[in-house]
């Protein structure tokens, strides 16, 4: 009986295809970044990332990649520590969205938590400068956190693009 329980637990965690099952909360967050996606890979690779797909089986098409800023830019800090942001980047090197997952900022409602902060990154090219006060609006008075979060989004997106979005390389 114990063997059967362990086997069922393994199948539930690893899934039937040999990959770990995606946490439903993470899947919901990824779906917010890629609304058209029908499936997502578990976090994998170097740098750590998720893949978003549309379609099924052999008919799947890659829509883009998602990553946590704290995985790709672990030394980047806001005013009161790291700001974990989930970022989506499509195959054309444009940001599909950002979602602030966790931070310790003392003034979250005045900082990177605002909807205006996240909205300004949607469809932004990763080739842009990402300068607060120039092409990024300072929607809050938390300058240190705004600059840090913008740098983490920019640098992480560029790392993903450099690794996976090579021109002419069908991934």
Question: Roughly how much helix do the residues carry, as a percent range?
Answer: 25-40%
Strand runs, count = 5
Overall shape: globular
Using only CA atoms, what is the Rg?
Answer: 18 Å
* Main sheet record: 5 strands, antiparallel
Q: Could you name the ranges where pLDDT drops below 50 across 5 or more consecutive residues?
A: 3-17
What share of residues are in beta strands?
A: 15-25%
> What spatial order of strands do you see in the largest sheet?
1-2-3-4-5
* Whole-number mean pLDDT: 82
Structural class: alpha+beta
N-to-C series of helices and strands: HHEEEHEEHH
Give the oligomeric state. Answer: single chain
Topology record:
Layout lengths: L1 H13 L9 H10 L5 E2 L9 E5 L6 E8 H4 L11 E7 L4 E8 L12 H5 L23 H22 L7
Antiparallel strand pairs: 1-2, 2-3, 3-4, 4-5
Note down, in words, how this protein is organized.
- The structure is a single chain.
- The chain is of the alpha+beta class and 171 residues long.
- Helices cover 32% and strands 18% of the residues.
- Strands 1-2-3-4-5 form a five-stranded antiparallel β-sheet, with helices on both faces.
- The chain is globular, with a radius of gyration of 18 Å.
- The termini are far apart.
Please tag this protein with its features.
171 residues, globular, disordered N terminus
Give a short summary of the structure.
The chain has 171 residues and is of the alpha+beta class.
